[in-house]
Design brief:
Layout lengths: L2 H14 L5 E7 L7 E4 L2 E4 H15 L3 E8 L5 E8 L4 H19 L1
Antiparallel strand pairs: 1-5, 2-3, 4-5
Helix pairs in contact: 1-2
Amino acid sequence: MSLALTATLAMLVQQAFATFTRGVVPVLAPPIGAETVVVDGVETPVLFALSLLTLPFNLAQVPALSVPCGFTTSGLPIGLQIVGRPFDEATVLRAAYAFEQEVFRVQQ
C-alpha cells in the first residue's frame, strides 16, 4: 500500500473520530483450518477477510483491541473490536474494561 493511501486512510479515520470518541466493529472467527470464508456471497481467503476489519485501523495508527462478546450459532467466538482516537489508548482500555465488567455482572 502506498504511503499516500495510508496517509489518506489515517486522515479519514481521524476525521471520523473528530465526532466519536470510539467505535466498535464485530470480528467473527473463521472455523479452524478454513482457508476461505464467504463475505457478501463471495468466497474470500480467510486472512484477507479478517484484515478487512483490522488493517484499516493498523494503517491509520489508531489504538484498537478486541474483547470476546459472544458466539455464533455454530459456536465460533465473536470479538468486539474497540477503536479509539489516535494516542487515546486509555479510552479504548476503559471501554473494554467497562464492557467486560458489564458482561461479567450480567452472567452472574
